[in-house]
Structures are given as structure tokens and as C-alpha cells.
Amino acid sequence: MTAPLLSVRDLSKHYTSRGTKLTILQGISFDIGKGEVVGLVGESGSGKTTIGRSVLRLVEPSAGSVRFDGTELTGLSSSEMRRARPRMQYIFQDPFASLSPRMTIGEILTEGLKIQGIGTSKERLERARKALEQVDLPGDAVNRYAHEFSGGQRQRIGIARALTLAPEFIVADEPVSALDVSIQAQVINLLRDLQQRLGLTMLFISHDLAVVEYICDRVIVLYLGRIMEIAPSAELYAQPQHPYTRALLSAIPSPDPDAPRDRQILKGDIPSPANPPSGCVFRTRCPSALPACGEIVPDLRETTLGHFKACIRDDLD
To answer: Does residue 259 form part of some domain?
Structure first.
């Protein structure tokens, strides 16, 4: 891996609701190298979005370190963080809720530039037009409103908004999950092209493992706020080591419905963060659980070069 642009260490996030502590993230550590696309996968409720928002401090971590290009973000003041934000941008999941219906597309795209005090009004509008052209939309769309565009076009506008500040790092939070299947491929190809052309570093959050395999260099597998496995994408899909990863991969639809498959169906639902299982958080649904799994919290250890898993069983490598 190249030199890390983003380094996360022991990141945790807790909430308290009606006197009950909710553990959303616990002990999250990973690096993302410059120009790398890292996928973050897991079931709903695993904490994927919380990680994405925590590393950009859209929500404040409860504990841990987030370093961006050598700078510790968690210790920055509000004004210091505001100055750092142009280098880090977020693409939101919902292309309908994330764009204000009362603002023109030009106003939406230049809002961040205006807050940062970048350029004149004319210069900011020109940057907005160029960003729209980068996502294959006409520059004159700056004069229109969000309701005049389809869902796929709105998501392109959301991507353009992130690009106007010329960021180095982007968190893409389920960027195609709200789109029709026919449009998803277009937007994914656009993101892949932009990443390669602009040299972007990206944390790509998704529940669609087929999409993650296509666009990501490495993959982080998350379950109930803890990392289960990290590996290069090709290796993870060919040789998953954690039982949870194997179950997720076995659920990917096959183009050949008659092909033999080793389906591993997980029983039950993901536990509540208000009452997580003792030991390994996955043990209550794990087909390979041992009695010791209820007592030991497994460390995330490197089993082969660049491949990490959080499981006490060596026989599953």
C-alpha cells in the first residue's frame, strides 16, 4: 500500500438513549493509501455510515484518532476543521434529500466555495459549470432546480458538489443504493473514471458486494461496530477467511441460477448495539462458533500479507 492519506486508530462511537449506552463503533483501525479505493461493507446497522461521518467529523467520535495526511483531525477546532474540509468531501446516499429544492444547482454547487471564501461569484459559478461537465451534465444546469432532474442526474449533481472544492479524499456513502439498477452501473463507472482521472482517494460504503468488487482495491468487512476482516479485494473474494465474510459473499446473486453454490444463510438478525454479545460480537450467528468465542474478544490480526481477520480460529484461514 502507498503512504496512508487517512489513518484511523481505535475509533469508537457511543450514544446514550434513555439511560442506555449504545455502542455503535468499537476499536476501529485502518489505513487508506493515497489514490486507493477502500470498500466498507456489512449489513444495515453495522456502523458503516457512522465510520464515514466520523472520519470527516460530521459526527464527533467518542474516542480514537483520525489522521489525515499527518494531521490529527480530532484535535482541530471548528475553524481549523473548516479550513481542512475542502480536501475531504462526502457523497450522500439519498440524491433527493441531499439537494435543497429551494436553491438552484449553481447555488448548491457554489455554497462550499462561498463558505471557504474561494473566488469571485463569477469564478465560483464557472467552477460549478466545470464540475457539472465532469459528471456528464451540461454546464447550463446551474440555472435549474433539483426537481427538474432524475434520480441518477441528481446523484451526479451530488458528485459534482463534492468535486467543486477539488478534494483529495471522498467518502461515498451508498452512492447508488437509491437508484434504479439500470442507472447504478452508469454512476459507478463515472465514479471509477473520476477516481482514476483525478487520482482521488475514496472510502466507498456499500452493502452491494458485487459493486464493491468492481470498484475497490481493498475491502473492510464490518459487523456490529467491529471490523471482522480486511483484505485486498481480489483476495477477499477468492479466499475469504472470516465466517461472516463467507456468508456475505455466498449471498451474492449468481448469473447462473443452476450453478452449484455453497450458500451460508445467517440465522436471526444483527444484535442490538444496546446489548451486544460478549466476546466475539458475531458468535450468536456464527456457524463455526466455539465456547471460547463467548469469552474472548478476537484481535484483528494479520494472517497473510495484507490480510487481517478478527477470529480466534486458525483452521478457518
So the answer is: no
Higher pLDDT, 154 or 2: 154
pLDDT surpassing 80 at residue 36: yes
**Is the CB of residue 146 less than 8 Å from the CB of residue 99?**
yes
Q: If pLDDT is split at 50, 70 and 90, which confidence band does 180 have?
A: confident
SS3 297: coil
Q: Quick one: cell of 208? A: 452491494
pTM above 0.90, yes or no: yes
| H-assigned helices in 146-242 | 151-163, 181-198, 209-215, 233-238
C-alpha span between 28 and 8 (Å, rounded): 7
Nearest CA among 191, 186, 219, 224 for reference residue 205:
219
Q: Are strands 226-232 and 307-309 parallel, antiparallel or unpaired?
A: antiparallel
**Distance of CA 268 to CAs 137, 265, 283, 285, Å?**
44, 10, 12, 7
Q: Is 75 within a domain?
A: yes
- Alpha-carbon Rg for the chain, nearest whole angstrom, is 20
Cα(242)–Cα(124) distance, integer angstroms = 48
Give residue 179's pLDDT band: very low, low, confident or very high (50, 70, 90). Answer: confident
- Residue pair 179/152 in contact by the 8 Å Cβ criterion: yes
Domain count of the fold of the chain: 1
Residue 180 covered by a domain? yes
**The CATH number of the domain where 52 resides is what?**
3.40.50.300
| Domain encompassing residue 117 | 4-253+264-316
Asked if the structure places residue 153 within a domain, the reply is yes
Say which residue the cell 456457524 belongs to: 287
Kindly report, residue by residue over 116-168, the tens digit of the pLDDT.
999 999 999 999 999 999 999 999 999 999 999 999 999 999 999 999 999 99
Bridge partners for 15 per DSSP: 22
